[in-house]
């Protein structure tokens, strides 16, 4: 059968229905007449679907990616020019945009030195885990191979990344998992495990990590992998003092600190990277999503020279980091990332993230005063969450079906927001906001007005 590349909307919808397997989607409703959603155009903060409906996007492409907004012609041109001249070469050799972007990136990350290119956040985290395991074999007789991760954090979709994932519903039905990934407790003060708060809760959270270290044996632990602000697990900003405590534990027990910046990185919180909000000095930093704002696939695993140098040994043919990412060699990624970073600098989008983020926080706090269903508002920069509860006193979560109804109501109003989704049993109850860093106060008002109306209609 000949395939016709038709622009007819009906044809495209039916081709999608028949052949596309969508991410995180139950397809059964498509069998009974529900149409898959198809996005055809984006400009600034807005996207249009195939039916012509306009939406204001408050989650940067649905998965917190399009940091500089849609329709950036200069990024598209940079990609086209580069891939026409030289599209790809495997990562055993360098490329001009790869060298240039690595230099730009390291300039923004004092104390870090080396960039390993890959093509997704999951893959970047896999690289970090492999580095830790290989260091264990090369320098610790294979003993220092355990990797700590935190409840509610998320690090990707591969089996190893799910092994380091603190979201039970994302992990369900995919085991058995890779051994020697060990959980430490979450640090959501609103859901304090022992009733403490503030600095006392931070101290208790650090003690809980140390208890795990001592139980497992510090000489068996190679790294701890943490998000600077927990993203999909509910937008959790650690309490004051938490990160200082993590750094001290890593120094005390010779544990590499791996920070997953896949969501928080590249301006979202107001600094280039989320960890920079807390004065942390990581050994490994992973990133993806906002690195090129979704204009091309790229991720980076960035390390110190102290990590890098542990693989320099020409007396052993197995001593090098024996890893490859095929599409880490695509030049479109770093070409896009260069322009993306220049736009953020030239338009002061980090500053806008702070200023407009304050407006978002104020609006959400105003909604919390108005609606008894909002139990907590938290976040940093243009990255915020509002946790919905049935009762503020007991903090009983609102049923996740009602949360989904609020998201759907906003969608019907032409506003796209997010929520914890198929992640945390009983706690998929947080509305989430991560608009592009170009967002204006008017955009934020549009978003929070839609949320206000949706909560009123769904919860009363």
Automatic annotation (TrEMBL):
Task: Read off the InterPro entries from this record.
Answer: Aminotrans_3, Aminotrans_3_PPA_site, PyrdxlP-dep_Trfase, PyrdxlP-dep_Trfase_major, PyrdxlP-dep_Trfase_small
Is the Transferase keyword given for this protein?
yes
Keyword set includes Nucleus: no
One Gene Ontology CC term in the entry: cytosol
UniProt record similarity statement: Belongs to the class-III pyridoxal-phosphate-dependent aminotransferase family.
List the protein's name: Taurine-pyruvate aminotransferase
Q: Gene3D superfamilies from the entry?
A: Aspartate Aminotransferase, domain 1 (3.90.1150.10), Type I PLP-dependent aspartate aminotransferase-like (Major domain) (3.40.640.10)
- Determine the domain of life of the protein's source: Bacteria
Listed Pfam families: Aminotran_3
Might you give the EC number(s) for this enzyme?
Answer: 2.6.1.77
Identify the keywords attached in UniProt to this record, alphabetized: Aminotransferase, Pyridoxal phosphate, Pyruvate, Transferase
Q: Which residues form a coiled coil?
A: none
Give the required cofactors. pyridoxal 5'-phosphate
A Gene Ontology MF term for this entry? taurine-pyruvate aminotransferase activity
Organism whose genome encodes this protein? Yoonia ponticola
């Amino acid at each position: 059968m000949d395939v016709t590349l038709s622009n007819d909307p009906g044809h495209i919808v039916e081709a999608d229905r028949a052949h596309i397997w969508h991410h995180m989607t139950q397809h059964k409703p498509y069998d009974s007449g529900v149409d898959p959603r198809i996005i055809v155009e984006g400009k600034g903060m807005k996207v249009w679907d195939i039916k012509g409906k306009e939406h204001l996007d408050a989650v940067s492409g649905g998965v917190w990616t399009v940091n500089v907004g849609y329709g950036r012609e200069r990024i598209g041109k940079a990609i086209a020019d580069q891939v026409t001249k030289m599209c790809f070469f495997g990562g055993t050799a360098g490329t001009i945009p790869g060298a240039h972007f690595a230099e730009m990136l390291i300039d923004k990350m004092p104390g870090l030195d080396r960039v390993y290119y890959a093509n997704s956040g999951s893959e970047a985290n896999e690289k970090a885990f492999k580095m830790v395991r290989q260091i264990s074999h090369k320098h610790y007789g294979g003993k220092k191979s355990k990797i700590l991760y935190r409840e509610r954090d998320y690090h990707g979709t591969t089996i190893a990344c799910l092994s380091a994932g603190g979201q039970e519903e994302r992990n369900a039905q995919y085991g058995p998992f890779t051994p020697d990934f060990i959980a430490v407790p979450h640090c959501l003060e609103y859901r304090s495990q022992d009733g403490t708060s503030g600095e006392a809760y931070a101290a208790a959270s650090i003690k809980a990590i140390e208890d795990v270290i001592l139980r497992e044996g510090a000489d068996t632990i190679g790294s701890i992998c943490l998000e600077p602000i927990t993203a999909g697990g509910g937008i959790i900003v650690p309490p004051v003092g938490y990160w200082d405590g993590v750094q001290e534990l890593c120094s005390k027990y010779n544990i590499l600190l791996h920070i997953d910046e896949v969501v928080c990185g590249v301006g979202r919180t107001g600094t280039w990277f989320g960890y920079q909000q807390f004065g942390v000095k990581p050994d490994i930093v992973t990133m993806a999503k906002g690195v090129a704002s979704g204009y091309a696939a790229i991720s980076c695993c960035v390390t110190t020279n102290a990590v890098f140098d542990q693989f320099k040994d020409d007396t052993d043919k197995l001593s090098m980091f024996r890893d490859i990412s095929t599409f880490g060699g695509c030049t479109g990624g770093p070409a896009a990332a260069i322009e993306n970073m220049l736009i953020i600098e030239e338009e002061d989008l980090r500053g806008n993230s702070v200023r407009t983020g304050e407006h978002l926080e104020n609006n959400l706090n105003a909604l919390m005063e108005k609606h008894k269903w909002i139990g907590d508002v938290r976040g940093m920069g243009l990255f915020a969450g509002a946790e919905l509860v049935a009762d503020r006193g007991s903090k009983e979560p609102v049923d996740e079906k009602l949360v989904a109804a609020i998201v759907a109501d906003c969608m019907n109003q032409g506003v796209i927001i997010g929520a914890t989704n198929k992640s945390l049993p009983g706690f998929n109850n947080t509305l989430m906001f991560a608009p592009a860093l170009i967002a204006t106060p008017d955009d934020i008002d549009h978003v929070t007005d839609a949320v206000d109306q949706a909560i009123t209609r769904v919860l009363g």
